[in-house]
Amino acid sequence: MRISQDALCGKVAPAGRRDSRLRGHRALLPVPTTRPARSLRRRCPSGYRHGICSGWPPRQVAGSLLSRPASTMAVGSVSARGVGLIALAVGFCLAVLFRRPLRRLSRSGMRRLTRARNAFAISKMRRIWRSSFPRAGVLSWDGPSALDLVLGEIRSAGLTGVSDGAVTANLLLLGKAYSDGGRQWVGTGRAVDVATLEELGRYARFTAAAYGTLFASLSLTGCRGSLRQFFRWLRAGSTRRHEVDAEEICRACEIDAKDLFHYDTGGRDAFSPAWFLARDPVSGAGVLSIRGTITLADILTDVAGESVPFDGGVAHRGFLRGAEAVIRGAQEPLQRLLSQGVTELVVCGHSLGAGCAVLATLALLKEQRSPPSPLEPLKIRCLTYGCPPTVARPPGSEEVPVVNVVNRFDWIPRLQLANILRLARAVGQIEALGLPLRRKVKCLLGRESPSELGIRFDDVYTVKAQRPASDVITKQCQSLDLVGETIWLYDACAGLVRRAEFAVADAISFGPPALEDPLRAMLDHVPLAYVRGLQEACKTRSATSTRAAAAAAPDGS
């Protein structure tokens, strides 16, 4: 039997008329006044819900479909929606009435959560630090470590319960105050001559070559040559990689194999950087080039930034231990170099190697001043690229032949333990102002100045630590400097040309690291950036000298 479509849709034919589509049935389809029995709904729940129940009499199906009219269903759905709206309105009213207690409760909960997360991260960092320096001897340290110093400053500044977003916003505000104060300009206006730039560019290739096949080929050749050297380095295996790196050093520095006196790949422990000793075919001087940071051991040397006594002042502990290791290993190669009639020694390096090069130069000069010394006939000088603050010498010390090159906004010459502690104190000072997020965002968007918020860079960054001067922590985190002369490479004419001029070393070593543009600060530190920057600065200076000579020449000459 078939059921009428009108019956399924709730439409029933008037009394006295027979539905033509219900053939074979003499009875009409009356509208039942009662719901079907519970047993019927239990036996066919799907047919009861959807109106499709094959094999059932049409009268019962139609009755089950029409037992609950559409109006009843509509009223039920409206009432449920109304209850939801009422509950939403009541919740909104309660939130408005109790907004202050709820706000305090949410803030305290977030502080507790942030404090617990920071405590877990600190304990994890401590475990990693202890596992990185497991042995006694050269890796051990009796005083507080750099990690303990930083964590103690964060705790004293009240930053343990501050969220990451608030710390980031405070750092951005400090960077804006730093840029508004015009602190980025560190030049003196005294230009560098062409001969000095050419010499610095030539020795910059030696510092890049110290990184070996992987990085020297990438810095000094094209992409095709880099891939070729990289696959050659992989095929060489661990037994012949020393030979491949030595060949790459000779190729990158444009020297013969006989001019490479010694190449040390460094150790697996901290305070043992890689270095090589060669002879420059252009000037005939010996070149002691120390590699920068590549391995985990180099990173451990970097982070050992506590201040230790050195030559009447203090020095970076990791760099000092690395310089001592280089000098011990270079004694015999230096004797062979002196036997070749070399009268000049240039100690150079990049990043970590630059810090070790400065301290090695100071140690060699001290040894040279104590006769009898085999280094007496040598003229020793140092060239560094991206050198971090390394040493603090006592007042009245004699000048040392050190030249530091800083490329644009390179952050490593500004990175030292004392500056990190100053940043932590500055962020704590800004957080203590209690500025709302709305005003911080307006300041970052340029609608307000940091001075209107009470943020002045000189006031918050140079604030002294709340500790007595005799505290051991203050002794272990003294400010270090860039010794010697400093040359700054910067962009001019809207970035179209690169210029070089002498800079104020204290303005660089005292400045906060990576506050202007963190990404560009990291890219400015790679060895390739120094090689290309010096080449561009040399071209600019040559063109300027040529134009000046042409303008000064008399007419007709």
- For the largest beta sheet, what order do the strands appear in spatially? 1-12-11-10-8-7-4-3-2
Structural class, from helix and strand content?
Answer: alpha/beta
The whole-angstrom Rg is: 39 Å
Strand content: 5-15%
User: Biggest sheet, open or closed, and with what strands and sense?
Assistant: 9 strands, mixed
Classify the helix fraction into a percent range: 40-55%
Average pLDDT score: 77
What's the count of strands? 12
Q: What is the overall silhouette? A: globular
The count of helical stretches stands at 22
Uncertain residue segments: 1-5, 7-29, 39-43, 45-66, 68-78, 135-139, 219-224, 465-470
Cα(first) to Cα(last) distance is 119 Å
Q: What layout of secondary structure does this protein have?
A:
Elements: H1 5-8, H2 38-43, H3 45-50, H4 58-66, H5 70-97, H6 99-132, H7 146-156, H8 164-180, E1 187-191, H9 194-209, H10 213-220, H11 223-253, E2 260-264, E3 275-279, E4 286-290, H12 296-303, E5 307-310, E6 313-316, H13 317-329, H14 331-339, E7 344-350, H15 352-368, E8 379-385, E9 391-392, E10 402-407, H16 417-432, H17 437-444, H18 457-461, H19 472-476, E11 485-492, E12 497-503, H20 505-509, H21 518-523, H22 527-552
Parallel strand pairs: 4-7, 7-8, 8-10, 10-11
Antiparallel strand pairs: 1-12, 2-3, 3-4, 5-6, 6-9, 11-12
Helix pairs in contact: 7-16, 8-16, 8-17, 9-11, 9-22, 10-11, 12-13, 13-15
